[in-house]
Write a structure and sequence with these properties.
With about 240 residues, the chain is an alpha/beta fold. It is built from ten helices and nine strands. The strands form two sheets. Strands 5-4-3-6-7-9-8 form a seven-stranded mixed β-sheet, with helices on both faces. Helix 4 packs across helix 5 and helix 9 runs parallel beside helix 10. It starts with 8 loop residues before the first helix and ends with a strand. The structure holds S-adenosylmethionine. S-adenosylmethionine binds next to helix 5, strand 4 and helix 8. The site of S-adenosylmethionine has 22 residues, from helix 5, strand 4 and helix 8.
Length: about 240
């Protein structure tokens, strides 16, 4: 595996050995990995915030940097909070928050494969559809925590992403439009309608895009705050009334 370019060959080999019931299964898993299939796809799960998240083909693999979004969301999440995981993908963010806080969790994704995967990781309220469209109207004005890791890669930059993303994740999971902010813009514009009076919006973005994300939040009538983690190379912008 090292000869094939796997940087963490020993660690990965241990995971594959643990995942393979027989020697021939192990040979198949190693072949898949050497052929370039992302480790999480070979294993069928990713570790995120210390828990295992099931990952199905084509579904976005939760990134380590998004643990910062979960940590920041946990800070503002009270027991019993209504939480929406918007653009949930595998449901990793909501599931990780639910692992540390007792919450009433709702999750939405437009991609049927992501929704099916999220239903393996989150046991209630997973909806398929466009942003807020499928959520019950009764949640309007009642969302305590709106947590968002929407696509934010500018369309022209997708070609420069690592092959694990470019080749194995759905375009809809990556493509944020010309400036990368199309989906964020739409989420932020609707956020005030859904947030509870004391609710918090939290959006993952890039350091480069953070000022634009914060501007959008201001234009929507919310007060933005930019938070970042050098350790995780992560940026989150929050918005409150
Ligand atoms: C960058 S991935 C993040 C997934 C997940 N939040 C995570 O961090 O692992 C973005 C997700 O947004 C979903 N998505 C894109 N456009 C959407 C839309 N209009 N409505 C709902 N979900 C959307 C994609 O299908 C994808 O699963």
């Amino acid at each position: 595996m090292r000869a094939a370019g796997c940087v963490f060959a020993e660690n990965e080999a241990e995971l594959l050995i643990a995942a393979a019931p027989t020697a021939s299964d192990l040979a198949r898993l190693v072949d898949q990995r050497i052929a370039g299939l992302p480790l999480e796809r070979v294993l069928g799960w990713a570790e995120f915030c210390g828990i295992r998240i099931a990952i199905d083909p084509g579904v976005f693999v939760p990134r380590r940097r998004s643990e910062f979004l979960v940590h920041q969301a946990a800070v503002v999440t009270q027991p019993g909070a209504v939480v929406v995981d918007m653009c949930c993908g595998s449901g990793a963010i909501g599931a990780a928050l639910a692992a540390v806080r007792s919450i009433d969790l709702y999750a939405v994704d437009i991609d049927p494969a992501a929704v099916a995967c999220a239903r393996r990781n989150i046991h209630d309220h997973v909806y398929q559809g466009n942003l807020f469209g499928p959520l019950p109207g009764t949640l309007q004005g009642r969302v305590d925590v709106l947590v968002v890791n929407a696509p934010y890669v500018p369309t022209d930059e997708i070609a420069f992403m690592p092959p694990e993303a470019r080749l194995y994740e759905a375009q809809v999971a990556l493509d944020g439009g010309a400036d990368g902010l199309n989906i964020q813009r739409r989420v932020v514009a609707s956020a005030p309608l859904w947030l509870a009076p004391t609710g918090t919006l939290l959006i993952e973005t890039s350091g480069r895009q953070a000022a634009h994300t914060a501007d959008m939040i201001s234009h929507a009538g919310l007060k933005p705050n930019v938070l970042s983690s050098d350790e995780l190379d992560a940026t989150v912008v929050t918005g409150i009334r």
